Amino acid sequence: MPVGFVTAGAYIWLARPVKLSILIGSGLIIAGLVIRALASGHVRKNEVLTDTGLYARTRNPLYFGSLVLAAGFVLASRNWWVGLLIAVIFATIYIPVIQSEEEFLRARFPEFAEYERNVPRLFPRLRPYQSSSESFSWHLYWKHREYNAALGAALLIAALVAKAFWFA
Fold first, then answer.
1. Which pTM was predicted?
2. Are 4 and 148 in contact (CB under 8 A)?
3. What are 117-140's pLDDT values in tens digits?
4. Residue 45 near residue 57, CB atoms below 8 Å
5. What was the pLDDT predicted at 1?
6. Which residues contact 39 (CB under 8 A, 6 or more apart)?
7. Mean pLDDT, to the nearest integer, of 86-101?
8. 47-50, long-range: CB within 8 Å, 24+ apart, which pairs?
9. Average pLDDT of the segment spanning 5-25
10. Is pLDDT of 39 > 80?
11. What is the largest CA-CA distance in the chain?
12. By C-alpha distance, which of 128, 114, 119, 143 is closest to 43?
């Protein structure tokens, strides 16, 4: 959590937004939030191997959504240093976490090996691995508190808008 606040502070300080960059970036930010929301409504952490919803297209839809969200913030910021900062954070935090989580899933769920062979790690495949009748669960969305990502994104966008108008 403290890393998040420091990163957000650095982001706002480095950002040089204008109305157009905020508008374009916001489109990707919203797409990333939707991806994360749809994924969170399917995952039942540590209970079953989730392979429904977006998990039938990528093994890590939450991280993919975060990547899309981050790309939106990079575009909105209009600063290549922000892009570099985001790339470093992703490489040093997300990649090891993804590897660690996959090791855990391999050990916990024997069926993970087949799933891993058929579903890409990060970038989604167009067709789902398998069809499923399991639908999105609002209960899971609220349980995972995915709305916090939307609230955080809204606050950062508001800060960008304020900065764009302040320095316009």
1. 0.89
2. no
3. 999 999 999 888 876 767 888 888
4. no
5. 55
6. 53, 54, 55, 61, 62, 65
7. 92
8. 48/109, 49/105, 49/109, 49/111, 49/112, 49/115
9. 89
10. yes
11. 57
12. 143
Instruction: Scan for tokens 């606040």, then name that residue.
Output: 5
Beta-carbon contacts of 145 under 8 Å, excluding residues fewer than 6 positions away, are none
Distance CA 131, CA 125 (A): 13
The half-sphere exposure of 165 on its side-chain side, counting CA atoms within 13 A, is 5
> Which tokens is 123 given?
């970038």
Distance separating alpha carbons of residues 143 and 89, to the nearest angstrom = 26
Burial 66-77 (b: 16+ CB within 10 A, else e): bbbbbbbbbbbb
> Contact 61/124 with Cβ under 8 angstroms?
yes
**Tens digit of pLDDT for each residue in 143-166?**
889 989 999 999 999 999 999 988
How many Cβ atoms from other residues are within 10 Å of residue 92's Cβ? 10
CB atoms within 10 A of CB 127: 9
Q: What residue segments make up the domains of the chain, in order of their start? A: 25-166
